[in-house]
Every structure is written in C-alpha cells, then in structure tokens.
Amino acid sequence: MEPKKPFHEVVAEKLIEQLKAGTAPWQKPWEPGEPNAYLPMNPTTGKRYKGINAIHLMAQGRSDARWMTYKQAAAVGAQVRKGEKGTPVQYWKFSEEQDKLDDSGRPVLDAKGQPVKETVMLERPRVFFATVFNGEQIDGLPPLQPKKEQTWNAVERAEHILKASGATITHAAGDRAFYRPSTDSITLPERGQFPSSDRYYATALHELGHWTGHASRLDRDLAHPFGSEGYAKEELRAEIASMIVGDELGIGHDPGQHAAYVGSWIKALQDEPLEVFRAAADAEKIHDYVLAFEQKQVQEQDQQQSQAQDEAVAQALAVDIAEVLDNPDVSFSHYQAFQGDTLEDALRSRGLETVGSITGTDPEQFYAVAHDRLSPVFGIDPSHTDTDNAYLERKGLAQEFANMAEQLHLAQQLQQHGEQIVSSIDAEARWSDGQRIFAFHDQDGEPHQVRSLDELNNYAPDQLMALPALTQQQAAVADQEANMTPPTNDQAAALLAAHPADAVQGIEQAAAARRQLAAGEIDGQAFADATRQHLGVELPPDWSGELRIVGVAEQDGQTVDAAQAGIEPQAFQVYARKADAQFGEDAFAFVAGTRTEGQAEALTERLHLVDALGTDNQHERAAKLARVQEERVRRDPNATEEDISAAKEARKTAEASAMLNDSDAQRRAAELERQERERQQAQPQAEKPERQYINVPYKEKDEAKSLGARWDRQQQSWYVPPGTDAAPFAKWAQGAATAAVEPRSAQPAPEAQGEAQKPAQQAQQARQYLAVPYEQRNAAKAAGALWDKAAKSWYVGPRADAAKLERWKPENVQAQQGPAMTPREEFAEAMRSAGLFTGSNAQGDHPIMDGKRHRVPVEGGKKGALDGFYVGHLDGHPAGRIINNKTGTDITWKSKGYALSDQEKAKLQAEAAEKLAQRAVEQDKAQEATAQRVGRQMADLVPIEQPTPYLQAKGIQAQAGVMTDREGQKTYIPAFDAEGKQWTMQYIQEDGTKRFAKDSKKEGCFHPVGGMDALAAAPALVISEGYATAAQVAEAVGHATVAAFDSGNLEAVAKALHAKFPDKPIIIAGDDDRHLVMTHGNNPGREKAEAAAQAVGGKAIFPIFAPAENTYPRDLPAITPDSFKTHLRAEQRLADAAAGKVELAGDEAAKLKASMLSGAQIAALSTMKQHTDFNDLAHKSELGIEGVKRQIGAAISQVQRDEQQHQEQKHVEKKQQQIEQRPRRAARIG
Fold first, then answer.
1. Helices and strands in the chain: count of H runs, count of E runs
2. For residue 637, is the peptide bond before it cis, meaning its omega torsion is within 30 degrees of 0?
3. What is the arithmetic mean of pLDDT over 1025-1035?
4. Residue 527 belongs to what H/E stretch?
5. Contact criterion met (CB below 8 Å) for 542 and 582
6. I want to staple 1188 with a disulfide (CB 3.0 to 4.6 A). Which of 72, 341, 856, 1036 is the partner?
7. Phi first, then psi: what are they for 785, rounded to 5°?
8. How far apart are CA 1201 and CA 975, in angstroms?
9. Sign of CA dihedral 595, 598, 599, 600
10. Positive or negative CA dihedral for 523, 525, 529, 534?
11. Sequence-distant (≥ 6) Cβ neighbours of residue 667 within 8 angstroms
C-alpha cells in the first residue's frame, strides 16, 4: 500500500488543480440572492463549516450545501449509499474540562457531592478527524427547504458595516480599488462606475478585509509590494473572506478582479501546502471582525433611540434594595455567617442602594448586569463558575433583583405605553397581532401576562391592558429567560417521548408510587411491588436515586466485574444505591441484567425518570430532569461539543436553582465553608514541605491522579501531596520500578541527583517551566519563552523578560494541562476519533507501533468484523495511517511531539515484544484450558446412531468420531492437530448454525473423517472445507478424508498434514463460489483452495456441474458488484418504506424498483449458490453421487500417477548423482 499523503497536502493539491482550471471555491462567481446559500453547513447542528473545512468541502463540487457524518444521517432516518466515499474534515480542541482538585490532589465536591469541573486551556491542542458525506450521497434526506424570506436589505447591511467600521473611504475617478497601509485608508472608484450596488459593496468589503490587517486591528503582515508573493498571500486571505462575507450578507461574490494572482497562489500552495490552511483561518478572523461592526451599528442606533426610555426605566428602578432583601419568601441570612457582615451593609458599602444600581437599565441585561455587579460582594470574579456557596448566593440574589427589575419595568411600560382594551373583539384582534396582553387581578393589582387565547377569554375587557409586540431579538431573549425556569410538564413529556407508550405508562405509575411512599401513603413493600409490576424490575424502598451500570463476564464459572478482570463484558447489570444501608451491608441492590450496554442505559434512563417524576419539589424535579437530559445528550453519538456544553450548563442552572430553594442545603453549605475558612486561618504557616516524587508511567497517570498524585512541571515528575497517604503510591516510589518508556527522560527527585549528573541534564533541571495556553504562545515567545521539545512545555529563556512571563508560572495558573502524551497515546487518540478500537483483544494491545499492518473492529461495525486498519511506526518522527472502511475515514497521522531517540525506541520496542510474548503465553494457557474443557465435555456426548437434523439436511451418513447430545439434535465435530490432540470442537445447531468453543485453537486443526488411523492408511490426503463435503467425498472414494472447517484454514491444515505425511499426495477439494464473483468481485473458495494446494505442491479440484447448474445464463443482463449493491440498497429502501421507517418522495419507488435485478436474475443467482461444493454435486445436481466418484476418483488416480513418476524421477536422479560422485581409478602408463 502506498503511503497516503497528509490531509493538508491532499487539500492543497486539489486546490492547485482547481486554481489552474479556474474552479477553486473562491474563484467561482455568485450572484446576489439568499444569504447563507452556498457555504457548506451541517443540518444536524445548523452551523456552517469554517476555515479550511469549508474550503475543502466546497472544492468537492457538490450542489447540495448539506454535509453530515454517517451517524448523523442514520439518526434522521437517512442512509449513506453503499460505496460512497466520505470527505475528511478536521477539528482542533484548544480547551477541555477536568475535575478540580484541592491541595491534596483530591476532587473538589460541590454541595451535592458531585465533582466540581474547571476548564483548562491546552498548551498542546488536540486534533480530531471526522468523515462527512454530502446530501447528494445520502438516501432519505428530506429535500432542501426554501430559505426563509430575507427580512433585511443586503445592501443596507453592507452600508451599515462600512459606516460602523469608521474606515476612511474615498472615491476617485478610475477603476482602481485598493487599501493603502501607509495612510490606513481605502480608495474606491465612484459608485456610478459599478454595474450594481451589490458589486460596489462586494468590492468595498473586500478592501475592508485588507483594512482589518492594520497593526491596530488584526495585525497581519501587509508590508509587501504589488506583485510580490507576500502581496498575493494577503490577497488570498481577503478573497476567501469576501466569499464568506458575501454569502453571509447575500450580496454575491465577484472574483474577476483577482485573476492576476492565480499564478502566485499556485506557487504559494506548491511551496507550502499549509498556506491555504493559514489563509482560511485568517479569512474567518476577517469575517468575524467585519461582521462585528454590524452589531456595533445596531447598538449605536439602539442607544440613540432608547436614551429617553433608559431615563424612564432608571426612574422606575430607583427603588430601595430593601424591597428585595426584606422579601419573606427569600432568605440570604447565611451570608452573614460566612462573610461576617450583613448582606444589606455589604451592598450599600459598594454603592448598590437601589434595584437599578444593581441591574442596570437595559431590560435585556437585568440578570447579566446584576450577576457582574454582585460578584465583588461575594469575593469572586464574574467568570467564576465553580458551584460553591458564593456562586449559588450570587446567582440567587442576581435572579431576585432581576425579577424585581422586570416587575418594575413592566409597570413603567404599562403606565407609559399600555393601552386599555375596550372590548373582547379588541382583545382578540390585539392577540392576533402578537401584542402582549396583561391582566390585573382585583385582589393584588399585580399584572399577569396572558399566555393563551383560552385564558384571555376568562377576563373582562376592563381587566386587560396591551403592550406592543416584542421584536424578534426581544422575543428570543424572553424565550431564553423562560428556559431558565424549572422544566414544565411539557419538558418532562419531551424526555418521555423517546420511550414506547407502555414504558411511559409504567414510568408514570412507578413515579406515582414513589410519591406515595414519600408521603407515607404506602409502605416499602408496596413500592417494591409497584415497581416490579409497572417496570418489570424491583427497586429498593430506600432507593437514593443513584444507579450504577456494571459490565460483567463469565470467568472460571463465575460472574465477575469485566473491568476489574480486564476482559470484555458479556452482559451488563444495573444496581440501585440504598440510602439506608448499614455498615457492612452492601450499599447497592441488584435491579436487572441486560445483554447490551445500550439496553442497560435505556433502563437507567427510565428509572431516573421515575426518580424525577416521583419528586414533588419542582426545583429538585427540574434538576433531576436536567441530569437525565444531559446524560442522554452525552450518549448521543451525533451530539456536538456545543450540544453537550449546553446540556451541562442547563443542568448546572437547574441544580443551582434547586440548591437556592433548599434552605437546609444552604445552611449546610454555609457551615462547611465557615469551617473550612476557620481551618485555613488556624493552620500555621509552616515551610513548604519537601515533596515525595514518584515514577509514574504515562499509561498509569490516570490511576495515580485518581489517588491524589499531582504533577510538578519544574521537576517533570508526579509527586504525593503533603498530607496524603503514601501507601497507595508504593509501586511508583523512587527506585521501586523502572518507569515505562516515555517521550521524555525520567526526572529523578532533586535529592536523588548526584554530582555525576550531566551538564545537559543540569541545564534542563534548572529550567523554569511555564503553563502557556496554545493561543497565548506568541505572546510568551515574544517575552522570551522558549520551547522544550522533550518536556513539551515552554520555559523561561536566558534573555526573557521575567516580569512579563510571571503570569504563566505554574503557581499563577489555576488550571493546567497534564504531562504530554507519548506518540503511542497520540496515535491511540487519533484511532479513537476515527472510530477504531483501541485496547487489548486476541491480536494484541492496540495500537501496536511496529510498522506492520493491523486490523481491528470499528465503532458500529458487525460483530467479529475487522473494518479498521492501521499502521503505526516509531522510526524517526513517529507517524502512521488510520483507515475506517465502514465510514471511509482515511487519516495520515504524525506525532505532534518529536522524534524518539534510539534508546527510547529500543525500550518501547522491547516493551512491545515483551507484551506480545506475554500475550502468546496467556493465549497458550487459555487454549490448553479450553482443550481440557472440551475433552471433558466429550464424556457427556454420545456417538451418532441416527442422523442429526444437520446430517439429514446434507444427506450424509453418520461417520465414526462425530458426536451428538443425548437428544440427538446437535452435531459435535471434534478438531485435532496433526499429532492427534483434540483442541476444539465445532458445534452445529439444528438449524445449521455453526460455532467453535470459545478461546480455542482452530488454526491448523481438522477433523479426520474415518479417524486418524484410517487417514494414515489412505492413498492420498483429500482436504475439503466443511464436514459435509469431506464426509460426502469419503463415501465416494471409500477412504478417510479431512475437513478443515473453512477456506481460511485450508492452507494451515495442508501444511500440517504435509509435514506429517510428506510422501502422500494432497488434493484440495475446494468450493467454487462463482456467484460471488458477480456479487462481490471475488471467489474466496477457489482462491483459498488454489493457494493451499500451491503451498504444499498439491492439486486443487472443484466440482463440475451439469450445464446451467453453476453458470449464469448468457441471455440475461450481466450482474456486477455495483448492480448488486444497487439492488440491495433499493430493496432495503423499499422495505423501510413498507415498514413506515421512511417516506418515499414522488416517483422514488418506481425508480428504486427499476434499479433492482429482475426475477430471472435473482433465480439464476440462487441456482448458482446451491451448486458450489461436492456435497451439492451429490445431492442437488443431476450428475449425483456418481459424478462425485468419477471426478474425485480421477483426481486421486492422477495425483497418484504424478507422485509415482515423481518418486521414480527422484530415484533416477539419486542414482545418477551417486555415479557422478563415485571416485574414478587412474589409468596406468607404460
């Protein structure tokens, strides 16, 4: 296989070809029209692809703008057509979320006992690959929906952007348009010289793109003369940005003015393929910068229009804060317990004395402003997101002040703009127009917004007032605020909708029983009975709501935890935590067992819904439902990072709301924080204790980290934090073990470094390492930071500005990325992103970085299929290739680290060799144990007296050595090696299903039909694939034959028997799968049989059938693999439509039927499939058993004659050689 080119080279080469042809994405003109109509987008996320991904997808020449992954298509009921090739895209991850740890390395928990998360900016970003398919390659996608009518004028938007930018723009005679960096100004031709306003604004925005490169803005390198390579590179950025902006605004794209740069663009991409990646990234920055001016313009207009309104709102919000603080329904009294001051005093001391001083006067920003202004009161930053007491206090207080501000603002709006409704007809007319209608109750006088037409009819006209309809933006904000309230019954119904109707009924009834149990209306046994009746499982009465899924497997006759045993799970069990479990009692109760993890996850979701719906407190119920939704999103393979993040934030908001409305929880949290503050204040300021360093191999870092180990960036080593029990870390103690090979040199503890340390090591040890996020690397580099390739970290250079680098010292960076991955770990992560299996299986511990080809399962693949391929090597710069044959993903990978030294490479290879040897030993033990188990099983079997269902179906008689069960239903065929040892057994069910003993040795093993002694006496070795063929041949020839079980085992069996009986001629009686040549393009039966015969110098023979039995009729249209795949796709599509899974559009059904094979073609294929081996020849061919005897007998006679001639020839050659080597007597002279 030829090495595949890296992604960036593939993209660059395609673009070079298109540039030469004038068809590159940014070279194609677009007419003005609908916005967002050309750039590729993902219909699942609703977002467009950006940067190089957008360019690469557009370069594919598809007319459909929709691109999605295989799974995303399947999730909407569509199907990627078989044979279609996907297009790769790549994503970079610059941050990740991890558990927050305390000084002892333990996870920090919130008030609910859940780990607190924190975001870490990555110093070494990670790249992920995906394969997407275009809408034209997918069956079952709904047709493209027409775009919503544009509600703005594209030209007006462009004009707003130009004005808001503040750019200096002059118009001059002539046809030149340019940006001059020296004066920071844009020159354009007069407007009248352009054929349309769209062309004018497209040109103006192109030059505005150049204008963004000024040092005071995006700071690109613009100091290049016209016609230079640097000038052309800047033009490329502006042109791609023009294409993106033109699509965003709907003003079109005219590339005609920039054809002169094509040659320079081609040269730039040929010299440096990554240039187009950088250009696309810069173009996205230009797009974002330019479009930001539109928002700025809107804000300026809003500011002018609402200045008077703000004054009115400010006056309405000039209400003392006591109105909120004295509310008896809300308590913030524990603030004083923690801060030592009353909340009111704390607010007034900071000038926050009125509602408006806290919320501001913008109704759309009431909560956001209150959130920021209240942060200092609680001693936290506005960006603080840890779910601690201060966070919850700030959130709750901000929400209360925002609620009060909204009430005051509404009253002001009604007073200033409200209109009294005069009649029911007037009310309904205003409702139809989208106006907001408010009702006033006599008892409290507070306005209440009417939410439905039915509710509107409940009020008299004199109780109603109307306000103008909200703008689209205001409505969106209102919806967002509405979503922050606890989930309604409709939201719960949305979660239930994913379950069958009978399951939903069971959930609701079990939830009702849970509420009755909490109210004391039923006892625990009644609750358990109710869950068993309605859910099919029994929950403990004291269930805490927590569930756990455990993968299990059978080992040595016992069910064990698969994860702890290090084996693949065979089933899954669900457990429920008991809240009242006593000491020494198992805290988890078994609930149910399932065959698959998906079934277990579906069950746990139903049970979590029972827990949520069984909770009376609406805030607690909302939090539980939010957890269910978050878990569902996390499990969804089509969920994006944005989806997961949104679900997580919704869950955090719901939990915070529940916390704020749980006075007991608030008191507990305040007490815990007070105790912690007192403990810290009382702790003596002792000297920093000496650290205990440990040698932790990279692959074990997560284990060490979970136990509390921390990473010391300076020493490049893990250590045990002071106060942490060192016993669990004993195996990593200094000198206890040799660390596994890592891409950095092992760093000994400071005290372990002797004077013999090399100068280079001393220099490295003295380095002051920094925690620099990737996006800040240029700033650190400018301040003098240097990059350490071995440690994969920045450090303070000898000429650095230490003051500027101070902020990146580890002690000043709260959240840091852990140590760098090894090349193998990098490669494994790339494999997982492509959907390939990593970890241990029968073939080894993947990835195996030995430069050889390896096959592994893929995500979503069929059981036993190895659709994943990879090659990884460590020579020079570690690199490799990854292919997912199911999705079409094809990745060329290179390590983001550095080249391994010879010593590191040798150690890693030695470790890999040791693992392979260990695995071989383990496999030998497992196979030996299976052989003994199978041997014992033979004692429970009996010889076959009457043909089993399988033998009857094949029309063969029972032979000695084949066994059955006492019911005579199943067929058991022992398999031996050439020495006669039984290693495994083939089990054949009544329906013909076959399998072998688990963990058994099959390669090179066979079944001798007639026995080993009879085989030794046979004149020739006749080897067939299956037992039925071998038994049929044995009946025909009258002596023992061999069954190799399948075509893949033919060669191994032939070699083993040839070594055992070197003088016996060998015949491979193969299967002739001619039908597979037409449907799949190959004939595995014939190919494997011929290869086996060639390997031992034997002869391969195949059954010859009567005319038309194993040949395709000439008068029928030919069948090809492509036409067969088309037939299968159409057949499946029609079946899905019949089952109601998909809906066919228009004449699609007729087209599908027309693409299918005819009945005559299918019948011809079926006939060929029934005539492939010698058993078929005996029972399905008109030639019958006599045909088998003639063909096999002739073959045996021929190989015997050939063998006799061969032996005679060897004898003659040997005799001739003896004569030639006999010494000759010298002749006498004289």
1. 43, 40
2. no
3. 92
4. helix 524-535
5. no
6. 1036
7. -75, 145
8. 31
9. positive
10. positive
11. 334
Please give the structure tokens belonging to residue 155.
Answer: 């030209």
Q: If you average pLDDT over each of 32-36, 124-128, 188-192, 1176-1180, which comes out highest?
A: 1176-1180
- Answer yes or no: is pLDDT of 484 > 50: no
CA dihedral 3, 6, 12, 18 (to 10 degrees): 50
Helix 275-305 × helix 307-316 angle, to 10° = 70
- What DSSP character marks residue 815? S
**The length of the chain, given as a count of residues:** 1230
pLDDT tens across 872-892, in order?
887 666 788 898 887 777 788
Residue closest to 178 by CA, chosen among 244, 222, 230, 221: 222
How far apart (Å, rounded) are the C-alpha atoms in residues 986 and 1007?
10
Q: How many CA atoms lie within 13 A of 220 on its CB side?
A: 24
Model confidence at 659, pLDDT cuts 50, 70, 90, reads low
Report d(CA 166, CA 1103) in Å as an integer: 86
Question: Contact 1196/1022 with Cβ under 8 angstroms?
Answer: yes
Alpha carbon distances (Å) from 884 to 26, 72, 731, 830, 1125: 31, 17, 39, 12, 20
Identity of the amino acid at 457: N
**DSSP output for 736-803:** TSPPPP-SS-----GGG--TT--HHHHHHHT--EE---GGGHHHHHHTTEEEETTTTEEEE-TT--HH
Q: Distances in Å between the alpha carbon of 481 and those of 62, 403, 478, 617, 948?
A: 40, 11, 5, 21, 71
| Tokens, residue 853 | 């080809």
Pair 577, 551: CB distance under 8 Å: no
**CA 777 distance to own-chain centroid:** 28
Reported in sequence order, the residue ranges of 502-623 that DSSP labels E, i.e. its strands, are 543-555, 558-561, 571-578, 588-594
> Would you tell me the crossing angle of helices 489-496 and 501-518 to the nearest 10 degrees?
130
CA distance 574 to 551: 9
Nearby residues of 1042 by Cβ (< 8 Å), 6 or more positions away = 1006, 1007, 1008, 1009, 1015, 1021, 1022, 1023, 1024, 1030, 1053, 1057
User: Is residue 648 within 8 Å of 641, Cβ to Cβ?
Assistant: no
Tell me the pLDDT tens digit for each residue of 294-331: 766 555 555 555 566 667 778 888 888 888 887 765 66
Can you tell me which residue has the tokens 């997912």? 884
Both tokens of 1065, joined, read: 């001629």
pLDDT per residue as tens digits for the range 242-296: 887 877 777 766 665 555 555 666 776 677 777 777 888 888 888 888 888 876 6
**Upper half-sphere CA count for residue 108 (Cβ side, 13 Å):** 16
d(CA 429, CA 282): 52
State residue 642's pLDDT score: 64
pLDDT at 147: 52
Give yes or no for a contact between 436 and 383, defined as CB atoms under 8 angstroms apart. Answer: no
Token pair in block for residue 157:
């938007």
Instruction: Give the phi and the psi of residue 260 in degrees, each rounded to 5.
Output: -65, -20
Name the burial class of residue 1062, with classes exposed (0-12), middle (13-18) and buried (19+) by CB atoms within 10 angstroms of its CB: exposed
Q: In the numeric block, which tokens belong to residue 1130?
A: 């159409």
User: What distance in Å separates the CA atoms of residue 191 and residue 424, rounded to the nearest whole number?
Assistant: 55
Helix (H, G, I), strand (E, B) or coil at 1224: coil
**Segment 509-526, tens digit of pLDDT:** 999 999 888 888 888 888
Best CA proximity match to 1029, nearest among 951, 945, 942: 951
Closest CA relative to residue 131, chosen from 801, 886, 740:
886
DSSP run (H or E) holding 275: helix 275-305
Half-sphere exposure of 1126 (CA within 13 A, CB side): 13
